[in-house]
Structures are given as C-alpha cells and as structure tokens.
Amino acid sequence: MPATLSDRIPLGGITDPRQRLIVALDVSTAAAAQKIVVTLGDSALTYKVGMQLYTTEGPQVVRDLIASGRRVFLDLKYHDIPNTVAGAVREAAQFGVSMLTVHACGGGKMLQAATDAARTQAGLMVLAVTVLTSMDEHDLENIGVRGTVVDSVIRLSTIALAHGCHGVVASAREASTLRSELGDKFIIVTPGVRPAGTGHGDQVRVVTPTEAIASGASYIVVGRPITEAPDPAAEARAILGQISL
After folding, report:
1. pLDDT tens-digit readout, 25-63
2. Is 21 within 8 Å of 236 (Cβ atoms)?
3. Are 216 and 157 in contact (CB under 8 A)?
4. Arithmetic mean of pLDDT over the chain
5. Architecture of the structural domain at 5-240
6. Which residues are catalytic?
7. Rounded-to-integer distance, Cα 61 and Cα 50, Å
8. What is the pTM of this model?
9. Where are the beta strands (DSSP E) in the chain?
C-alpha cells in the first residue's frame, strides 16, 4: 500500500549541520573522489555519487565510500519501466546507500515499484526528482509542460509522496511552497546551492545555503563551490556555519 504523509517522520531534531550537507563528487575517477573525501575529513559525512563518477568507476566507488564510514546519496535518477527501476533499486539497496533518486515524471507505478523495492534495505530513502535546477519555465514549455515551475514541482511531489517516496529533490526556491502545500513530514533535498558571491555554473534556480535551509530544505547538495575551492575543508566549514540554524 502507498505510504501516507502521516506515516513519515519529519527531519526535526538534527543539531549537527554536517548531517544536512551532501558534497557532490562530480569527478571522473575514484582517486579524485578519494582526494576530496580525505581533504574534507570530518567536515562532511555524506557524499553524492552521480552519473559521471558511477559511469567511470561503477559500484566499487560506492562500496569504498560506505566501507570508510561515509553515507552515500546515489544520484542516478532512475527513469524506466517499473520492473527495470525496481531491479535497479534492489541492487543499489545491497550497497547500503542511504538515499537514491528516481525521476518523478516516471509516474505512480514506477515510483511505487521503486519504493517497494527499497524496503529490502532498512533506512533507504527514495527521493523523487521533480524539475531539474538547470531548467526554467521556458525549458518546460519547450518540452510541452504548461504552467510555472512551482506548479510542476507541486504536482510531481504530490504524486511521488502518494506512492511511497520519502521525499523529493527540488530547488529551494520551491521548498517553502512545498512545505506550505504538503507539510513537513517528508524530505526535501536541494541542489543548485551556491554560497553568496560564487558563480552559478549551469544552474538556473540557485539559492545560498542559508536561504535553502530557511526555505524548508532538509539537505543541501554542494559540489564545485567546495570541491574546487582553494581550501575545500575551510569552504565546507564556512557553509556549515551558514546552515547552523
């Protein structure tokens, strides 16, 4: 049966800001990823492994991170027929990852298959990607999606939560609306987070770490502003200071 919002537990109670920070390992080799992890030391607890690193290094890089005591956010954005996605989630669950992503636009049957498969690993959170933070309303219109970005995020989030997802991936620009419309008993992970004064890169809907948490984000994903900083550990600590609300 699909989970209801009342079945979920809100994120409240976190006192260590490191639990809210996810560092994106958007690099091409395990050696580069390991260098980042070692450099950051205890300034970060959770790391995102996305398509770039996973394509070059495969599941071993995930296993190594978990073996070293880190938490892994596996961001492969599964989007396929329900049976295929369920099989992929079951395999990912065996690694011991803490979070993984599916595309909300895969529909209710696919989302339900993913969340059912995730039950093989206690504590595994399935998060539905709503609208990529590199997209705006013009981009949505070009692919035939009418309405505002917020409209799409609310619609996709509602479907995802109704079919068992533990939360969603969305810009912090939509987080406050998500909280007011759908409550606080689900996770919001926000990419597109940039400290004030840094470049936006290929992101469009960008906010600062402080704005993200204040808007209702549960976790923030930060990549290049940390990993490409002259002193990554110092930059991570600075961001932690900004989200210590």
Report:
1. 999 999 999 999 999 999 999 999 999 999 999 999 999
2. yes
3. no
4. 90
5. Alpha-Beta Barrel (3.20)
6. 77
7. 11
8. 0.90
9. 21-24, 46-50, 71-78, 99-103, 125-129, 167-169, 187-190, 219-222
